[in-house]
Amino acid sequence: MKKSLLAIAMLGILSAGTASAQSSALAIYGIVDAGVNYERGNVAGSDVKLTSGIQSGSRLGFRGTEDLGGGLSAKFVLETGIAIDTGGFNQGGLAFGRQSWVGLNGDFGTVAMGRQYTPHYTALNDIDPFKTGLSGNSQNMILSPTRMDNTIKYSSPSWSGFIAELAYGLGEVIGNNTASRQLGGALGYANGPALVKLAYHGADDATGTDRTKSTLLGGVWDFGVATANIAINRTRGTGIVDSRDYLIGSSVPFGPSTLLVSYIRKDDRSTLNRDGRQWALGYTYAVSKRTNFYTSFGRITGDNGFTNTVGTAVTAGTGDEAFNVGIRHVF
């Protein structure tokens, strides 16, 4: 009798475990990216370095979902940035500096809370042929904050190709709810060969008396043999900040290879008139579905003391020219 009761109890435990496994899922994923980067144009001289995260930031992530019934599910993402060259952490050493959020998903879309990507950055990444990586990273020229802390974010489902995002990042300054606050939003359309996005990001200063604002409009048209990538961004803000940025580029796939090219012009409308230009060329070669080699070259020129540098997916760069070669593996 005792053996029978024990068998029934064990069967119940196994059944409960199976039901739990069917209603929830956990995935471990990541990117390992490293290469050699040569930079020059700094007054201190050129630099050759082994760099992590040239094409894409190296990372280790955990994401999970649980079916709550009634069309609802709980979701979370914990993602840390890893410096492959040193074994350390990126994003200032934060444990999960790339993403850390938990949320609820349903037919209405997703509401998430935590450290998340800004809608402006997501739009720029979708439009940039270099995907904000390699030496053609559009963030070398276009102000687009990548992440927001303390953020409540809504992401809509696709309505016949139309999508929307809204994000609010609390400044958490006692006695001043506008200080250090961030707001973002995006509207987009993605259907067939067409992608169009309008995005905004606003960041209040430490006193809540001024705000830096960036508004982006751009799109991609996939012709099959190549894409046409176009964007315009306007940034206004504290003091003398007033610029318009123009991007044009293309991604040309052929077999396992992809050629990338872009040109970005910054039109500084402030009294300093520090205009700038970035030219970039890149090439990737896929040796499998998960692994590819890459190389890229970028050069920045400017007027009246323009000082932007050629960075990659993770590093800001030290000079006005950069050339790199490396390997990326996705798992």
What are the defining features of this structure?
16-stranded antiparallel β-barrel, mainly beta, 2 helices, Porin, 9% helix, disordered N terminus, 331 residues, globular
Describe the protein's architecture and organization.
- The structure is a single chain.
- With 331 residues, the chain is mainly beta.
- It has one domain: Beta Barrel (Porin).
- Helix content is 9%, strand content 55%.
- It is built from 2 helices and 18 strands.
- Strand 16 and strand 17 form a beta hairpin.
- The N terminus is likely disordered.
Would you summarize the structure shown here?
The chain is mainly beta. The protein has helices spanning about 1-25, 120-125, and strands at about 25-40, 45-50, 60-70, 70-85, 90, 100-105, 110-115, 145-155, 160-170, 180-190, 195-205, 210-220, 225-235, 240-255, 255-270, 275-285, 290-300, 320-330. It has 2 helices and 18 strands.
What's the CATH first level?
A: Mainly Beta
- What's the domain count? 1
Q: What fold name stands as the CATH topology?
A: Porin
Which segments are poorly predicted (pLDDT under 50) over 5 or more consecutive residues?
Answer: 1-21
Give the averaged pLDDT, no decimals: 93
